[in-house]
Amino acid sequence: MDPPLTCPSCGEALIRHELAGIALATCNDHGRWLSHPEMNRLVEALSMEAKQTTSKARRRVRRLIRTRRARREAANRQRSGLGSFFS
Ligand SMILES: [Zn+2]
Asked: Which residue of 17, 27, 45, 85 shows the fewest CB atoms closer than 10 Å?
């Protein structure tokens, strides 16, 4: 379904355009309008993107924790190695 041709607020003709495959209509005074199915598609696309961003961030944090743990373990090994060298 297409977005409205005229602004539901002021009745002016809307400028039609597309954003990420979603049809939008813009009124200079009242912002963007879109049909209900298009809004659902937009919400779905955004929540999909949010999920991907969240899992990407989780992976990044896990990698960081692993790296820090490995560094700490390496430092501990080095420390204990030096300890036995000096004792
Ligand atoms: Zn308007």
From this structure: 85
